[in-house]
Backbone:
């Protein structure tokens, strides 16, 4: 009888705790077709429980847990890891491991003294986010970022042992007394040291064989692709390259050479649907656009999809001038 009262009391306390918080079980847009309402509710409750061990949770909305101290934790990463798992015990283990790692990273950050530049230089990194994601989840006034690809933001990050965290201007950057351009260069050098998979294949696109290259690394491929002149010279032709950055784990490249100056058009026409798929189905999309890479800079290429299914490619003005000179 006593045990029954204890169980009832514990359940009541848990219920009161959850009801005092503003918890929304609406599935984030990205995962609406990926996960059931029941599973999302399970993951949400497990996540709130884990965060509550360290912080006082005030709300969960649109997949973001917010606490009284101002701490925020997005569930996107966790949902991607667990969307195919149906065993509640395994889900609980995944959630616990996720937040243990997150808080270990936070504790490590605190012990690292992030105001001391010499302590963090080796952890400097980069990550590319869609503009809309950046505006929703980060505070631009306290972030260190630049724009390399139209429609995206490249953020200066710290690649800590258990998690990525963005460099915060007021809490870190302002104490370093370093030039932003220098820090982005060092971060890119750190990225360039990562091990990536590189592959070049001749692929038949509409009756023409086109040479296409790929760079893969589930964490770093997107950021690696920002510096092809230094880390992948073979993928850059005399007239540059056309590059697609569908998600952070893979980039697709077609170099533009004097011998095959218009292969990039067939590349775009033949892979447009695939790039869109790589973008839409990945938990960390970057862009579904194509970019001309030349002289270290990226220019968005206008791609027009007609009602009849045909795809028109309009090359950037500078590339058009280079192509005219070849005639």
Residues:
């Amino acid at each position: 009888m006593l045990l029954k009262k204890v169980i009832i009391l514990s359940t009541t306390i848990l219920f009161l705790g959850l009801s005092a918080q503003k918890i929304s079980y609406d599935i984030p847009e990205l995962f609406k077709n990926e996960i059931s309402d029941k599973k999302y509710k399970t993951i949400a409750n497990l996540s709130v429980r884990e965060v509550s061990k360290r912080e006082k949770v005030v709300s969960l909305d649109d997949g973001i847990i917010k606490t009284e101290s101002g701490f925020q934790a997005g569930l996107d990463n966790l949902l991607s890891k667990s969307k195919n798992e149906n065993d509640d015990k395994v889900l609980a283990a995944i959630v616990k491991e996720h937040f243990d790692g997150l808080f270990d990273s936070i504790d490590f950050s605190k012990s690292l003294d992030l105001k001391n530049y010499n302590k963090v230089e080796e952890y400097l990194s980069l990550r590319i986010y869609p503009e809309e994601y950046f505006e929703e989840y980060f505070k631009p006034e306290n972030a260190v970022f630049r724009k390399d690809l139209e429609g995206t933001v490249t953020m200066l990050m710290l690649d800590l042992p258990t998690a990525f965290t963005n460099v915060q201007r007021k809490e870190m950057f302002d104490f370093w007394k370093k030039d932003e351009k220098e820090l982005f260069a060092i971060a890119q050098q750190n990225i360039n040291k990562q091990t990536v998979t590189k592959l070049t294949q001749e692929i038949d696109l509409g009756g023409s064989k086109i040479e296409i290259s790929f760079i893969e690394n589930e964490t770093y491929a997107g950021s690696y692709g920002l510096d092809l002149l230094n880390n992948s010279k073979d993928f850059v032709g005399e007239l540059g390259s056309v590059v697609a950055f569908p998600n952070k784990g893979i980039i697709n490249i077609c170099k533009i050479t004097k011998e095959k100056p218009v292969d990039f058009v067939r590349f775009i026409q033949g892979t447009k649907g695939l790039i869109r798929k790589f973008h839409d189905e990945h938990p960390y999309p970057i862009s579904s656009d194509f970019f001309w890479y030349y002289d270290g800079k990226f220019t968005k290429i206008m791609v027009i999809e007609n009602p009849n299914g045909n795809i028109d490619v309009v090359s950037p003005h500078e590339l058009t001038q280079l192509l005219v000179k070849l005639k």
Remarks:
- The two ends are 92 Å apart (CA to CA).
